[in-house]
Amino acid sequence: MADTREKGLQDYRKNYWNTKKLTGVREQLREQTKQYEKSENDLKALQSVGQIVGEVLKQLTEEKFIVKATNGPRYVVGCRRQLDKSQLKPGTRVALDMTTLTIMRYLPREVDPLVYNMSHEDPGSVIELPLTNPELFLRVGIIPPKGCLLYGPPGTGKTLLARAVASQLDCNFLKVVSSSIVDKYIGGRRFSEGTSADREIQRTLMELLNQMDGFDTLHRVKMIMATNRPDTLDPALLRPGRLDRKIHYEAIVKLSDGFNGADLRNVCTEAGLFAIRADREYVTQEDFMKAVRKVADSKKLESKLDYKPL
After folding, report:
1. Which family does the similarity line name (predicted)?
2. What CATH class has 51-106?
């Protein structure tokens, strides 16, 4: 009787360990199957033609979505079974199959790569401080500036400064070029005065002014405008309460009249070389003055537009 119980216990242990090993093998098989399917899908994606980039506008049903392609038209499309449909929210960038227009994969949000490669030392308190410490303005009882205008000759670094601010602040940076605001197809009521393009630009300006006046006092929305022709701006943009700060690069112009951004970079490089020749690890004002003279001698000054403070 004791031998029978001992033999049964040994058989149970043997079967238990065999079952445990079999369970582990099944788990490994599942993982390998997933890796195989992923590799197969990646190979199919590499062998297939290019895909269309689109943006999800709305989810109609559990399987159907309205997607706007980058080339303009909108489609009602399906989705791959492997994708998590809960992540397909309005505004998500997706890749569409060239033939069936099926949503194949998610794409990261569109950003300007130059923004994240910029750095700054001290851009000022016009844009950064109201976004990072709005409670300071609330305690003092003043209204923070809604935006600033950077103006100066071409090549002085206005756009680079805006990118530097966007790189260092933990906020979304929306880049808008003035020429892209005007729509290709103009709708709405027609008026007798002016051309259609003039009316469209006027409506765009009025909407911009309305949005600037409609901003909340401490709302985390700020505007940075850059132009090299401040004389052509509408005076309504420059009145107090809209663009409160106008920043002119006076120091740069005084240091090197007629130089552009590339010339100023050469000045810094030459100043560093002068410091190296003098066996120093720092650059002095004299090094900069020598570098300015050297670059100015090798540069033919082109015609320039004189900028006056607004």
Report:
1. Belongs to the AAA ATPase family.
2. mainly beta
Q: List, for residues 57-82, the tens digit of each pLDDT value.
A: 888 888 899 998 888 888 999 888 88
- The pLDDT assigned to 120 comes to 42
Residue 231, CB-side half-sphere exposure with 13 Å CA sphere: 5
* CATH of segment(s) 113-179+221-255: 3.40.50.300
The sign of the torsion formed by the CA atoms of 18, 22, 25, 31 equals: negative
Answer whether 51's CB lies under 8 Å from 98's CB: yes
- Domain residue spans of the chain: 51-106, 113-179+221-255
Sheet containing 245-248: give its strands across: 223-227, 147-151, 245-248
**What is the average pLDDT across 5-13?**
83
Written as six digits, the tokens of 72 are: 């303009």
The pTM of this model reads 0.38
Among 110, 120, 111, 129, residue whose Cα is nearest residue 160: 120
- d(CA 229, CA 304) in angstroms, rounded, equals 12
